[in-house]
Design brief:
Order of helices and strands: HEHEHEHEHHHH
Mean pLDDT: 91
Low-confidence stretches: 242-260
Radius of gyration: 18 Å
Shape: globular
Distance between the termini: 28 Å
Number of strands: 4
Length: 263
């Protein structure tokens, strides 16, 4: 059993850990060019969630492996579910956790096209439930800089430097030859949701996978685990507080990334 994907905890393990925080990786099953597997986003989400679970006393859940990948439908192998279905799945998981005594859920999103996850968190928080979406764009930016990732988050959209690096670190056997020559840049993607990925790339790649390395992948995960500390403190505080901007207005939208990035 690969415990990086399917946790091997017993009920006693969860009871003894006792933090009341569960972590749910959510990925996708979609094309990632000729060099990365269809399960890349799920593998990335699991790697991030495992790094978090190694550093904090959380209840690590198995991944949701199919998400909203409709923009990748042009390529064989891609499978999607509707946003309504994904919303319902995450809500059902959160409800089930609360019935078993785990009150807080952190959704670790590995696919930028899973936009609805932000809505799940918004709605749950408005009901007084504790939920968070991780990592945010700011967490990825911090990790990018710390790891020495050259490509910007805008350019590193899909199967690029970040995803290739994480897989080179965690699952090098799954990275196919040819990523060194697969770079393709398309920064202006304003019609992505209308036209899909195939309007912007023939290969399915948008980014610079040639710059990926296992060392960068390791540092990316270390940085994200460090960034999670603020989330853990917020979610386990006796009274959760809403982050504010300098003028006192709420500023956190729980989006986990800007529109059109890292799909």
């Amino acid at each position: 059993m690969d415990v990086s994907l399917v946790p091997a905890d017993t009920s006693d393990d969860v009871r003894e850990r006792g933090s009341g925080v569960a972590v749910l990786p959510v990925g996708s099953f979609e094309q990632h060019g000729p060099h990365l597997p269809l399960a890349t986003d799920t593998l990335v989400a699991c790697a991030v969630a495992r790094a978090v679970a190694d550093a904090y006393p959380v209840h690590l859940l198995p991944p949701v492996t199919i998400g909203c990948s409709h923009e990748h439908a042009h390529w064989p192998g891609t499978v999607s579910i509707s946003s309504v279905t994904l919303h319902a799945v995450v809500r059902d998981i959160a409800d089930s956790l609360r019935r078993s005594g785990v009150e807080t859920l952190v959704v670790v999103n590995g696919h930028g096209g899973n936009y609805v996850l932000g809505n799940v968190v918004q709605e749950s928080s408005a009901r007084g439930e504790r939920m968070a979406l991780f990592p945010a764009a700011e967490d990825w930016e911090t990790a990018r800089r710390r790891a020495g990732v050259v490509t910007s988050l805008l350019t590193d959209m899909h199967a690029g430097e970040i995803e290739t690096s994480i897989l080179l670190h965690k699952h090098p056997e799954l990275v196919r030859p040819g990523y060194e020559a697969a770079d393709f840049v398309a920064d202006d993607r304003r019609h992505l949701l209308s036209l899909g990925m195939s309007a912007y790339t023939d290969s399915g790649v948008i980014g610079r996978p040639s710059l990926g390395s296992a060392e960068k992948g390791k540092e990316l995960l270390t940085s994200l685990a460090d960034s999670f500390g603020e989330y853990f403190a917020l979610l386990t505080a006796e009274t959760a507080k809403t982050p504010t901007t300098s003028d006192g207005s709420g500023d956190s939208d729980g989006s986990g990334g800007s529109d059109g990035e890292r799909v």
